Amino acid sequence: MSRTTKLATIASTAAAAALAIGVTATPAMAWTAGDFTATLNGNMTIDAGIAAECTDSTLTGTIDANGNLTITDASVSGCGVTVTPQGLPWDGSLNNGVASINGFSMSAIGCTYGGDISGSFTGTDLPVTATFTEQTVGKTSGWFCPGSATVTAAYDFNPA
Questions:
Q1: pTM
Q2: Is the model's pLDDT at 22 over the cut of 80?
Q3: What are residue 115's DSSP bridge partners?
């Protein structure tokens, strides 16, 4: 093997090793930590036997570098009835394509429903759209209320 061929072989082997080390040492993509505002994309449906279609909702809070959410404020309107978020703050996460909100709770016409909901999203940093489809939450209080309700909504999460 000629001296030039040996040097080229050594150089390409060293470059491949450096690339392999660089690729395996790259940390996972982190979220940009900070405040967020999530606005309803379309309508929210809360169905406890009779569906309420809400036209406006906003969630605000913070996201950390690992995608963990703290939702400190929530509002819902345009439902035909008064719907009031309960038990804030809620926590949750945006992680590996799974969106979750833990402790989600809403009250309307004397019935309160709550629980953990999960959905999906795509992306690696804000902005992303999280979609929650027919998530079942249980009754937590109220007389003559069905035992559970389903929630369907999509939220656009953006940096605040």
A1: 0.81
A2: no
A3: 104
